[in-house]
Amino acid sequence: MDQSTLVTHDPHDDKHQGAVVMPIYQNSLFTFPTYKDFDQAFAGPDDTPLYSRGNNPTVQQLEARLAALQGGEKARCFGSGMAAISTGIMSLVRGGDHVICVDQAYGPTRELLGKFLSQYGVETTFVDGTSLEAIRSAAKANTKLIYLESPTTLTIRLQDLRACAHFAKSIGAATMIDNTWATPCYQNPFEFGIDLVAHSVSKYIGGHSDIVGGVLIGSAELINRINANEYLLLGGIMTSQTASLVMRGLRTLPLRLEKLEQNGLTVARYLESLPFITRVNHPGLPSHPQHELAKRQMTGTSSLFSFETNLTTEVMKIWADRLAYFRIGVSWGGFESLVTVGKLGPGYESVQGSLVRLYVGLEKPQDLIADIRQASAELLVNS
């Protein structure tokens, strides 16, 4: 089934009187007519609704849809993307283990691995994920997890997923990836041998900047083990109301991504023509150093990217203030265009410059380009 059909077509549902939209099970508790049924539920499959901290039918419906869309066997939803990432990592490592993590991963993920879990004897080595040799060189006898984020969401760097998965298996380590940038529509890490996939559904999957949530997708064996341990004990559950909103966003995900990809590429190509911009980090552009890898691993590109300038962050923050259609904010994946300004990062300490991240939304791209042009007028004169 094509992904567009998968997210929009549901069979007739007699259980819910033919409701087109899955009802919201807004309750904490599920009861049973007899104690025999109660005992059977406890002894039966983990999927039986007993209490919404464990299973809720509305959330389960979303989980089934996300697993099918990503091509995994089973999914588990969480109250935030970070709850999913934290739970996934902690399900795969123990005290005394070593983790290899890409150095441009999401900031809170690096904080979790580099500081929080180090308190419990988990060691992490951060490496340049664009270099398979760097990943291989970082491996130790106790390496149990290689954590990936491809593309990364600031510098937009990729890892070779097939090569990383092959290497991890050769040393007996698991692989986990944050696949939020590409979404299930544009990248399927399971095709390359990755074990566990995480998404922040707050971003493209939700699509309307009105929910916070996360998901883990993997084999039934792995997700069942997470269900029985970290998921229940840490309690980072998704509510039925949130699940309903995510399912609404999921209906239009492939359609939205087609438009967002077009808009993002149109704006990125324009930015390459501006003299004060030294590099545009968008894997859909031939100028991106990993453009060929992107074409092998992904079937499309999303609309979050960044560009580098030789101007200071102070100058570029003034530039961002002049923008009319790009709002200043940290998240992305909704209908609205966004901008943030920061430093160039590791390796550029001696260079004057700044890194600007743009999220291109569903506005007309020509309007966004005109907005960038007017905000850049003074910079263009000085250039």
From TrEMBL:
Q: InterPro entries, from UniProt? A: Cys/Met-Metab_PyrdxlP-dep_enz, PyrdxlP-dep_Trfase, PyrdxlP-dep_Trfase_major, PyrdxlP-dep_Trfase_small
**Key words of the record:** Pyridoxal phosphate
- SUPFAM superfamilies, per the entry: PLP-dependent transferases (SSF53383)
Residues making up the signal peptide according to the UniProt record: none
- Output the superkingdom of the source species: Bacteria
UniProt cofactor(s):
pyridoxal 5'-phosphate
Q: Name one Pfam family in it.
A: Cys_Met_Meta_PP
Q: Which family does it belong to?
A: Belongs to the trans-sulfuration enzymes family.
Name of the featured protein: Cystathionine beta-lyase
**Could you tell me which species this protein originates from?**
Gordoniibacillus kamchatkensis
